[in-house]
Amino acid sequence: MFSFNKPILLRKALGLFLVGERRRRGIVMESTLKELSNGESVLDIKDKCGVAGGVEDIGYSLLRDPHYNKGLAFTEAERDAHYLRGLLPPSVSSQQLQEKKVMHNLRQYQVPLQRYMAMMDLQERNERLFYKLLIDNVEELLPVVYTPTVGEACQKYGSIFRRPQGLFISLKEKGKILEVLKNWPEKSIHVIVVTDGERILGLGDLGCQGMGIPVGKLSLYTALGGVRPSVCLPITIDVGTNNQKLLDDEFYIGLKQKRATGQEYAELLEEFMSAVKQNYGEKVLIQFEDFANHNAFELLAKYRTTHLVFNDDIQGTASVVLAGLIASLKLLGGTLADHTFLFLGAGEAGTGIAELIALEITRKTSVPLEEARKKIWLVDSKGLIVSSRVESLQHFKKPWAHDHEPVKELIDAVKAIKPTVLIGTSGVGKTFTKEVVEAMASLNPKPLIMALSNPTSQAECTAEEAYTWSKGHAIFASGSPFDPVEFEGRTFVSGLANNAYVFPGFGLGIIMSGTIRVHDDMLLAASEALASEVTEDDYLKGRIYPPFTNIRKISAHIAAEVAAKAYELGLATRLPCPSDLVKYAESCMYTPLYRSYR
């Protein structure tokens, strides 16, 4: 006789019913919902609202799919065709009116985190309106969806978490990462931004709550670079946290254990990288974000020859800062090789910027790289990096250990090295003191001061401090935005050395050319493209970066130059090369205007 377990059979039967019902309703949805865009069907429409009902609940599903929901912008005809009658108020709005209403509501919030949460709610409800809003109001909303507000959002991510916006891969998934990747509903992925949460901005180890960074970065890939949101995937790798406050928090959403290190960490990352290539192919761009120094350098070195990888903290920051330096030469005079650079901070950002400056000097002057590095000095927590310290230095600091007597304090390093450019990547606020800025001003008629650490609270100095203490002589740029400064009857507009200038256009250039590896010359091309966008009007205001209002045009230009360099290096696979890469880049860009359905 055969025995059977009734509950198991019932669950299997229900499972088969659910699968069949989802397939049936997917066919109904796809056949009934059509776009009036070149006569093409809406692709991959998905039912995310359960299985009850039949044709009649298409409207209900449609309103809850952020990819297709238009809210009150559904026309009378669309409401009739797609069973929306009664599910919406009778008013019909344009996308422009919706945008005006949302901006009005956002401006009522006094707390930046409330604006952030409102924007995330909008993204989960109406994707196209979210991106339309961000594109049209980029200078106002960039600080809301990214730095500095995203830092606070990460700190409180466990409290504000509502629904997943990306994949969480933890040690629990070891041996099953490929299976986890297949759980993501979109199957064609071109860009992944991944973090392990160990060094979130200047805030330290936030563990699993670092997910706000990949989500924010990828929203900028779409809004600023025109990369379609459906091909973007945010991922957080959770190996634990060493933040005791989070471990003691009953509401913490991540693994409650100390961070895995060594072989256990390396094996998980190796499985992840292999699974990504196996599932998405050779040409998926993997952007490492906010890994701690020791892992960031090792991962980039290990995978840059086998995968399409990019570290925004090391390479993206470097490209943006180099662009500002190239642009500043019009105000400072001379070439990069004529200047002396002093960094406060010798981690991922500092050493990455320093290396790209040295590479640019080498390309322009043909001097050996080792010689070009001698124009660049770094200060870490123990003082000036000099040759007498070389045995105790981490490997990525050793190229910057020059012959000089030890110097402990930054102010003494300024007086000894006499730099023309001072760059802060320390993650420690208020370290460019009045004495330091005054010393820079006494040494140079126009000192270039770049306080790059994020968020705003960690900036080495403010714009007002830089202009006031230098008596209006400084050229200033920062990683977080500052308001214009009035000093002695003149208005100074500081430059914003934000990575968002480069990585969206850089990624677009890689995708549209089918590039298979990132080369340093592509970073240099991006820097020079960005620098060329600075206008005479920008220079008159003291800016060494263009305004973000033109960012889509800038991103298309950067994408074109990056792609051109990839074709030149033989790294592009999408052949033949388009005759006009700028126009091609613009044609590839996602546009968040509503579509008409029939």
From TrEMBL:
Domain of life assignment: Eukaryota
Active site: 146 (proton donor), 217 (proton acceptor)
One GO cellular component, as annotated: chloroplast
Cofactor: binding comment: Divalent metal cations. Prefers magnesium or manganese.
Cofactor(s) demanded: Mn(2+); Mg(2+)
Annotated ranges, domain Malic enzyme N-terminal: 123-304
Residue ranges constituting the Malic enzyme NAD-binding domain according to the UniProt record: 314-567
One annotated GO molecular function: metal ion binding
Function as written in the Swiss-Prot or TrEMBL entry: The chloroplastic ME isoform decarboxylates malate shuttled from neighboring mesophyll cells. The CO(2) released is then refixed by ribulose-bisphosphate carboxylase. This pathway eliminates the photorespiratory loss of CO(2) that occurs in most plants.
Protein name: Malic enzyme
Organism field: Solanum bulbocastanum
Classification lineage: Eukaryota, Viridiplantae, Streptophyta, Embryophyta, Tracheophyta
